[in-house]
Amino acid sequence: MERLKTGAGQAKEKLGELQNAIRQQRVAVLNGSSREELAGYLQHWEKLVGELQKDMMLEKSMQLGLLYEAAHTINASLDWRHTLQSVMDAVILLTEAERGMLILIDENNQLQVELTSTNTGEEFTEEDVKFSYSVVEQTLQRGRPILTSNAQLDPRFQDSTSIVAYGVRSVLCAPLIHKGNPLGVVYLDNRARAGVFTQEDIATLGAFANQAAGALANAQEHKKTDQVLAEKIRELTILQEMARDLNTSLKFERVMERSISWAIAAAGAECGALGLIAEEGIRWVAHSGQIAPDTMSVLRSVYTHKPITDEHRMILPLLRDERPIGALYLLAEERGIRPHKLEFVRRVADHVAIAVENARLYEALRQANQAKSEFVSVVSHELRVPMTSLKGYADMLKNGKHGALGTQQREFVEAIRRNTQRMELLVSDLTDISRIETGQLSISPRPIAFNEALEDALDTVRDLAEAKQQTLSLEIWQGLPSAHADKARLTQALINLLSNAIKYTPPQGHITIRVWLSPEEPDFIRCAIADSGMGISPQDQVQLFTKFFRAADPQVREQPGTGLGLAITRNLIEMHGGRIWVESAVGKGSTFYFTVPIAMWA
Ligand code: ADP
User: Is 500 in the pocket of ligand 1 (CB under 6 A)?
Assistant: First the structure.
């Protein structure tokens, strides 16, 4: 493009030389030159004009070549605006136009000025953007370039107000036509001078217009593909965000409410409702805005599995595995429904259907779990009463107040006592776990001495350890601050851990209880219960704190147990704000650690 400008610059130089010569001669004539002198000047002028014409022709054909070259690159160039702008600038120089515009027909069939160029290189002002509509319209109608030397006098435009209003004189306008379709025009004018454009300029501009039309059609095609692609990417991103949002919670109400907002947004609707199939037909479970769905149409859509769209509504069936589970009813009374959104909204509806189904399943599971916990709590309460009486009678028999017992009878009574105790433990563990699961178990923490809870727990388990000739040693820091804990529940956690240590450690084993403050967690008291027992494999350690888990080892299975103790203990510790963990090696022993918060105000 630089070469092109330089070429035009040389022609301008020649023109300048000629103008200078004419000016000089005019002075000479005014000073009274002779006929011979004047004839000499005339000769000189003719020579200059001839040279100039030759130069101009040469340059024009060279420039035309360059123009072609440049125009060809338009097609290959992604930055079509930039390239067209350069070519426009060149066309202005070549044709000596004052201004140039690339005017395109937009989607609404309106003329839009896309690019502008001036011979001074100055920016177009609002004032400059005015052009003759009659010339542009006639060019588009004829499908061929229009040249007028002086539009003011041209009979073709005598009715044109814009020509007069804008004082347009020379105009050259060429249509941009691609595969028979008019895309717009290239419009050149010179408001000051008449007769600026020549027939050759028509050829130059025509060539440019042809190339520009091809480039524009290409760019428009690209733009369309880009737009479709961008729309698809946008939709995918929305679907991803939506799936993430709907998956953050399984809470039924939230899922319904979020589903409805996503569907409204996707359809560009103003309000909407979500209904689920129920015995009575459709039960509307969520809505946004004032809406009274037309149930008949909804049922039609649900049972035909087909969406219904009209000017203002979109009804989509919610299907899971080809089975209708509900419907989305979307309204856009003001804006109107955009039918091309249907495909996307359908995909949103697919996601909604999955989320709704998951939330429903989860809700059903939650309710079943609740029912199970309630059942366990009723049953354990009902068991407790007869067990207390069994235990009481067994104690009475054992005391011998109602007659002495023989050795075998004593053994039987002892067995009844042991088993009622075992059942008692089971019932109390079941009650606790069901209360934890239904959120009915609460704790009342207050400042207490950790030692007191530990003493109570040791009182309960000491006999068990002695029966197995195990040693229990204590390492407790002096001057420990008070713990912020529910004493009964902390004691229960300690009993669970100590009785496990005793149960799963062979006779004559060692159990050590350590209580201290760790700099790692300065706001918590730490307690470790270490045993020299059978240990726990790494796989079992992972499941240890889940309810009903018991290691498969026969040594474990021969001990009485419910598999609930550690699950309850973990919940109790966590309810206090502490944590629990284990370190263990098979055959070497286990250490259970837990923390309880220090009472800050004590
Ligand atoms: P239970 O003792 O009633 O079986 P828990 O929930 O208290 O139930 O413990 C779960 C399982 O963890 C036990 O069955 C046992 O396999 C393992 N376990 C718990 N404490 C120890 C321990 N100190 N040493 C070895 N295994 C243990």
Answer: yes
Is 227 within 8 Å of 336 (Cβ atoms)? no
Say if residues 489 and 443 touch (Cβ distance below 8 Å): yes
Coil vs helix vs strand at 244: helix
Q: Which of 428, 472, 536 to mutate to test the pocket of ligand 1 (most atoms within 8 A of CB)?
A: 536
The structure tokens listed for 409 are 């009878």
Note the residue count of the chain.
Answer: 602
Which pLDDT tens digit goes with each residue over 400-457? 888 888 899 999 999 998 889 888 888 889 889 888 888 889 999 999 999 999 999 9
**Six token digits for residue 10:** 């040389």
Tell me: the pLDDT tens digits for 89-98? 877 877 788 8
- What pLDDT shows up at residue 53? 54
Protein residue closest via CA to atom 11 of ligand 1: 550
CB of residue 551 inside a 6 A radius of ligand 1: yes
Instruction: Single out the residue of 282, 306, 302, 303 nearest to residue 292, CA to CA.
Output: 282
Helix (H) or strand (E) holding 585: strand 580-585
The whole-angstrom separation of Cα 244 and Cα 508 is 56
Which residues make Cβ contacts (< 8 Å) with residue 254, sequence separation at least 6? none
Asked whether 302 lines ligand 1 (CB < 6 A), one says no
Q: pTM surpassing 0.90?
A: no
Check pocket membership of 157 for ligand 1, CB cut-off 6 A.
no
Q: Which residues of 114-143 are buried (b: 16+ CB within 10 A; e: fewer)?
A: ebbbbeeeeeeeeebebbbebbbebbbeee
Q: Are strands 308-309 and 313-320 parallel, antiparallel or unpaired?
A: antiparallel
- 3-state helix, strand and coil shares in percent for the chain, rounded to the nearest 5: 55, 20, 25
CB 134 within 8 A of CB 160: yes
Pocket test for ligand 1, best of 502, 541, 566, 586 (most atoms within 8 A of CB): 566
DSSP 17: H
